[in-house]
Amino acid sequence: MRGTTTMVLFLFIIVFLSAVLALFATNVTFDHRTLVIDGRWKVLISGAIHYPSSTPQVRAALLSWNQKSKYGGLDVIETYVFWNMHEPVRGQVSSFWLSFQLCFASVEILCCSHYKKIGF
């Protein structure tokens, strides 16, 4: 029963996130030179930050860093989900729930960034 409940919750979150992402869809293509986003050529400039290394208490400060980087010219923020959190010992995958919590933390950062209209 527990596995079924977890799977239903997981599928609900996937469907919900797909619906949210569909609201913010844009037209992205590629021509012989570069990416074309909504009919305009665009070269994406990116930076990186390690969200999984942060604690929930400092994530608000990291979001303000995202906003400053957007004003500084960055278009993309790279983030990581460390594999050693999912598989601490080679061949031994940690519990599904722990993996799900780590992925949800990354999604939380992305949703908060979009909610603050940073544009990442």
Automatic annotation (TrEMBL):
EC number: 3.2.1.23
Domain Glycoside hydrolase 35 catalytic, residue spans: 35-93
Enzyme class, UniProt record, top EC level: hydrolase
Reaction(s) this enzyme catalyzes, per UniProt: Hydrolysis of terminal non-reducing beta-D-galactose residues in beta-D-galactosides
Family: Belongs to the glycosyl hydrolase 35 family.
Native species: Coffea canephora
Record keywords: Signal
Protein name: beta-galactosidase
GO molecular function terms attached to this record: beta-galactosidase activity
Superkingdom, taxonomy of origin: Eukaryota
Gene Ontology annotations of biological process type: carbohydrate metabolic process
Signal peptide boundaries: 1-22
